[in-house]
Amino acid sequence: MSIRSKKINILLTGKPGIGKTTVIKKIIEKYKKNISGFYTEEIREKGNRVGFRIKNTDGEEGLLSHIDVKSRFKVGKYAVNTNDIDKIGVDSINRALHNDEIDIIVIDEIAKMELFSENFKNTVSSALNSSKIVVGVIQDKNIEFLNRIRERKDVKIICITYQNRDEIAEDIIKIIRYNL
């Protein structure tokens, strides 16, 4: 574990489709060797969104949710696959927490679907409490777990908008550089 003290956790929020994951991917590209974690992507069939995949920074991927999956956990029309949340998302965060060469943990996203996994909630808390910089996405919902994260003194919330989405990645890179 790094001996430096915790500096900051940077969490993005904004409307669906505004570009939060695009910003996350730019951060991953910039810090390839010093970053671990996961991001999510839409699954589309014939132009319609039918689910979401979860991918880690090592290239492993799984199914986060889908309209054709069977699960007791649902968000809207999507059944949530907690097995892949744990296998892809939680494992990638844990690898980062136990690797001294990783300075940045990426978590896209902390939201209702992922919160069905208790392992995910515990691991996110560990990441936020670690000395590593967390860059992630947090859903703008009134959920107790999310509210507690937003209230933390070490969390900086950045709202992605149409006006700032093209330059915000560079701003975040500057914040990371300052805090490394």
User: What is the name of the CATH topology?
Assistant: Rossmann fold
- Helicity range of the residues? 25-40%
Runs with pLDDT <50, length 5+? none
What's the β-strand tally? 9
Shape: globular
- List the secondary-structure elements in sequence, H or E: EHEEEEEHEHEHEH
Could you name the CATH class?
Alpha Beta
Q: Structural class, from secondary structure content?
A: alpha/beta
Radius of gyration: 15 Å
What distance lies between the first and last C-alpha atoms, to the nearest angstrom?
14 Å
Mean pLDDT value: 93
CATH architecture: 3-Layer(aba) Sandwich
The profile of the biggest β sheet is:
9 strands, mixed
CATH superfamily: P-loop containing nucleotide triphosphate hydrolases
Give the number of helices. 5
- What's the domain count? 1
Strand order of the largest sheet: 5-6-4-3-2-7-8-1-9
* Percent of residues in β-strands: 25-35%
Structure description:
The protein is α/β, with parallel strands linked by helices and 180 residues long. It has a single domain, classed as Rossmann fold (3-Layer(aba) Sandwich), CATH 3.40.50. It has five helices and nine strands. Strands 5-6-4-3-2-7-8-1-9 form a nine-stranded mixed beta sheet, sandwiched between helices. A hairpin with a 2-residue loop joins β5 and β6 (78-80). It is globular, with a radius of gyration of 15 Å.
